[in-house]
Write a structure and sequence with these properties.
Helix 1 packs across helix 4, helix 5 (113-119) packs across helix 6 and helix 13 (266-281) packs antiparallel against helix 14. Strand 9 and strand 10 form a beta hairpin. Strands 4-5-1-6-7 form a 5-stranded mixed beta sheet, with helices on both faces. It has a 4-stranded antiparallel beta sheet with strand order 8-11-9-10, sandwiched between helices. With 408 residues, the protein is of the alpha+beta class. The mean pLDDT is 83. It is built from 15 helices and 13 strands. It folds into 3 domains: 1-249, 2-Layer Sandwich (Alpha-Beta Plaits); 254-354, Dna Ligase, domain 1 (2-Layer Sandwich); 359-408, no CATH class.
C-alpha cells in the first residue's frame, strides 16, 4: 500500500475571499451562497472557527446557519481569486515532482512513494524520509499548511485535520494501523467526501459517533439502512480507499485587463477580443490549440468575482470562433466588471490546417471519437466517458451482467 500525503490549508476559500480583512476570520463568518456558480443557491461555504462554535458548517442551508448564529457575517465568494491562488499552489507542489490530486481548493493529496528516494536517499528510517518530503513541500508552497500522512487517502485527510502547522501527523504501517488511527475520530470527517456529505447527520441520529463504531457494524445492516453510501463510509473508516488519480501536469497561462470604468455590453466584448488576441500571442502557447478556458471578472457592485468555464467543441486557436463561444457568457455576468480575466484550463494538440490527401474513413472516425472523449472529459471530468463491459451476461441479477469501465 502507498503512503499518501495530504496538504490541508484550512479555510482557504474564506481566507482568499476575505483578502486583507483578517478580522473576519476572528468573528462568526461564512462564505455567502454563490448565486452565479449554477450550484446550490442556499448553502453557505467555508466558515470561520468562531462560526463552527455555533454549530455552523459548510454546506448548511443559509436559513439554518442564520438561525444558529444571528451574528453570522456573510463574505461574498471570490471564485476567480480562489481558482488563481489554488492553481499557483498546485504548480508549486508539482515543481518538487509530486503528482497531485486536488479534491477541492485547500485540500490536495499526492503519493509520496516516488519522492522518498529523491528527498530521503541518505536517510534510513521511513519516517525521516517522509519528513524530508514534507519539508520539500513546505518550502515549495511558502504558506502555512497542515500535513497528514497515512496509507490511504481518507486517513491522510483525517490526519491532516489533526495536525498543526509545524507538527505533521504521520501514520505508518498498513490498513490495520490506519483503521486503528481512525477508530476514535468522529463520523463528521465523512463530510470531506461530497458523496457522503449528508451521511454523518444520519449516523449521529442512530447513535454512531465515531468511525470505530461505524466499522463495528455489519455490512449487511449498513447496506439495508444506508445503501451504497453506508458501505463506502465503512470502507473508508476501515482504512481503505480508492487509488489516487493525479491530474496531468499543466501550465498556468492567464491574461487580465483592468477596465477604466465599470464596463458592460460592447465594452466587455471588445475587452474580451483583446484578451483572446493577447492569450493566443503568448509564446508559452508554443503553437498549441486551446481546449478549455476560464473566463472571470472582478465585479463592482457586489464586491466579489464571477467565473465561468468554457470547453470548446473542438480544440482551436481561431480568435473569431473563441469570441463566438465566450461572447454569450458575458451576458450572464451579474454586475458590471472592473477587471476581466481569461485563463487557459487545458491545451490541445498543435494547430495545423493541413489534411491528409488519402485518409482512411475508419481512422478519421476513430480520431473524431477520441477528440470527442477528450472534450467530454475536459468538461465533466475523467469519468465522463464510460463503456459497458459484459461480466456475466447469463446471470439472473441485472447488476451482475455488466459494469461501467473507463473508455480508453
Amino acid at each position: 500500500m502507498g503512503m499518501v500525503v495530504c496538504v490541508l490549508l484550512p479555510r482557504f476559500q474564506l481566507t482568499v475571499a476575505a483578502g486583507g480583512r483578517a478580522e473576519l476570520l476572528r468573528v462568526p463568518a461564512a462564505l455567502a451562497p454563490d448565486v452565479g456558480s449554477g450550484g446550490p443557491k442556499e448553502m453557505v461555504g467555508e466558515v470561520s472557527l468562531a462560526a463552527e462554535a455555533f454549530g455552523v458548517h459548510p454546506g448548511m442551508r443559509l436559513g439554518e446557519a442564520l438561525a444558529r448564529c444571528p451574528r453570522l457575517t456573510l463574505v461574498p465568494p471570490d471564485p476567480a481569486g480562489v481558482a488563481e491562488a489554488w492553481e499557483r499552489l498546485l504548480v508549486r507542489l508539482e515543481s518538487i515532482g509530486a503528482a497531485v490530486e486536488p479534491e477541492r481548493p485547500g485540500l490536495v493529496c499526492f503519493d509520496a512513494r516516488g519522492l522518498l528516494k529523491l528527498y530521503g536517499a541518505r536517510v534510513v528510517g521511513d519516517r525521516e524520509r517522509i519528513e524530508r518530503v514534507i519539508s520539500a513541500a513546505r518550502r515549495a508552497l511558502g504558506v502555512p499548511a497542515r500535513y497528514g500522512v497515512a496509507p490511504s487517502r481518507f486517513a491522510a485527510v483525517a490526519a491532516a485535520t489533526r495536525a498543526r502547522t509545524r507538527r505533521p501527523v504521520i501514520v505508518t504501517g498498513g490498513r490495520q494501523e490506519a483503521s486503528a488511527f481512525l477508530a476514535e475520530l468522529p463520523v463528521a470527517l465523512l463530510r470531506a467526501r461530497p458523496a457522503l456529505a449528508e451521511l454523518p447527520e444520519a449516523l449521529e441520529r442512530l447513535g454512531i459517533r465515531t468511525l470505530g463504531e461505524l466499522v463495528a457494524l455489519s455490512p449487511d445492516a449498513l447496506a439495508d439502512r444506508l445503501g451504497a453510501a453506508g458501505l463506502l463510509a465503512r470502507e473508508l473508516a476501515g482504512g481503505g480507499d480508492g487509488a489516487l488519480r493525479p491530474r496531468p501536469a499543466s501550465e498556468f497561462l492567464r491574461e487580465s485587463l483592468v477596465l477604466p470604468e465599470a464596463a458592460s455590453g460592447m465594452q466587455l466584448e471588445r475587452a474580451l477580443g483583446l484578451l483572446i488576441d493577447r492569450l493566443l500571442a503568448r509564446h508559452e502557447r508554443r503553437g498549441r490549440t486551446v481546449r478549455a478556458v476560464a473566463l472571470s471578472a472582478v465585479l463592482v457592485e457586489q464586491g466579489g468575482t464571477w467565473r465561468r468555464q468554457a470547453v470548446f467543441r473542438e480544440a482551436l486557436a481561431d480568435p473569431l470562433r473563441m469570441r463566438l463561444v465566450l461572447g454569450p457568457h458575458l451576458s450572464l455576468m451579474p454586475a458590471p466588471a472592473q477587471e476581466l480575466r481569461l485563463a487557459v484550463e487545458s491545451f490541445g494538440p498543435p494547430a495545423s490546417d493541413q489534411r491528409a490527401l488519402l485518409e482512411d474513413p475508419a481512422a478519421a472516425r476513430t480520431a473524431r471519437l477520441r477528440e470527442a472523449i477528450r472534450q467530454a472529459r475536459a468538461a465533466a471530468g475523467s469519468e465522463a466517458a464510460l463503456r459497458v463491459l459484459e461480466v456475466d451476461p447469463d446471470s439472473r441479477f441485472p447488476e451482475r451482467r455488466a459494469v461501467l469501465t473507463p473508455f480508453e
